[in-house]
Amino acid sequence: MSTTEVVPIRLSPAERRQPVEVGVRARKSNRAIGTELGVDEGTVRRDRKYLATPEDERPVRVPRPQKERPIRELSLDESRRRHQQSLLKAAQLWITQEGLLLPDLDLFVLPYSRQAPTPPQTLTK
Predict the structure, then answer these.
(1) What is the model's pLDDT at position 5?
(2) Residue spans per domain, the chain
(3) pLDDT score, position 10
């Protein structure tokens, strides 16, 4: 005998009401229907009440209006900081994916991080 418990798939209310209606036509009890669907007897009772209500009198869910959220403008410094953070994350991900070591990074990073040498300044008298 198997002791594995089968977990039922969670159905939306509309999907769940169809088998409830079939169970009602088969004259099954709320508890029997609930056991078959993996829901509480009270859920089946509520679905039966919903199905017994004429369609034009059934409650309709009206979506709530969304609150307007102000758009925050970023300062130039904050924008640059966030951009640098995203570049750093991308570089770290690339380094990890490529499996590079610290000596390998010198080949890629240092040539681009060094600035061009400045010409020597001459002193004039």
Answers:
(1) 59
(2) 13-57, 79-113
(3) 84
Report the pLDDT averaged over residues 25-54.
93
Contact criterion met (CB below 8 Å) for 30 and 41: yes
Contacts for 108 with CB less than 8 Å, ≥ 6 apart: 100
Q: In Å, what is the CA distance from 64 to each residue of 37, 56, 58, 98? A: 30, 21, 19, 48
Q: State the DSSP code for 26.
A: T
Global model pTM greater than 0.85 = no
Reported as a pLDDT band with limits 50, 70 and 90, residue 27 is very high
Q: Dig out the tokens for 115 from the structure.
A: 């600035």
32-43 in b/e form (b: 16+ CB < 10 A) is ebbeebebeeeb
Cα–Cα distance, 87 to 110 (Å, whole number):
16
Which amino acid appears at position 30 of this protein?
Answer: N
In whole angstroms, give the CA distance from residue 19 to residue 37: 8
